[in-house]
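Thread: quick sanity check before group meeting

JM: Hey all, I'm pulling together slides for Thursday and realized we never actually wrote out the predicted structure for the chain we discussed last week. Dropping the sequence here so it's in one place. If anyone has concerns about the input, flag it before I start.
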Amino acid sequence: MIHLEQVSKSFEQQPILHNINMHIAPGEFAFLQGRSGSGKSTLVKLLYRELERDTGSITIDGVSIDKLAKYELRRKMGVIFQSFELLERKTVLENIVLAGQILGRDPDKMEAEAMRLLKRVGLEEKAHVLPTKLSGGQQQRVAIVRALLNKPKIILADEPTGNLDPETASEVLMLMRELREEEGVAMLVITHSQHLIETFAEKSWILKEGGVYERQ
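JM (edit): ok, ran it. Output follows.
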């Protein structure tokens, strides 16, 4: 589903990532761990082309990301951020449906799909409230629904539990694992939490000194 081969990235001649090799199979629940500043977020941004790599190749679902327009690439993936990234002046439902509208999809179909997913995560009754009325855990559930809306092949989750307490973090990761199975999507979770990796990971890597090393 995701394949990186010899991927490198530098900023102002300072190497950040060096000869990264990773493979994530369809439906896999994989984790990448590293300290702050180790390059975890940089790697995620390379995958959805917010940044461009210097060398190496990246394929998603068997296709080089260089052969995909950015909107085509982002239709194949959903992204979840630590800070939720919800618009405060739009309702929960509006925030979710916007992810489909940006890609030109039918608003009515998107609304029906959003409501199905909101029901699945226990937030159906919150569809018409503003995100500021929700707890951190609820906001992250909304962000997960938004990431799943376009039926992606993969979810990239960049520190999705970083703003949550340990109990809520575990609940959110358990939900993500369940949805991974139900929706048939691979997930790559970026985290610094050893506990979450030991509890949930099927495959995991550690990123240090610019290199990625798979945990055995």
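AS: nice. The chain has one domain: 2-214. The CA atoms of residues 33 and 114 lie 31 Å apart.
JM: adding both to the slides.
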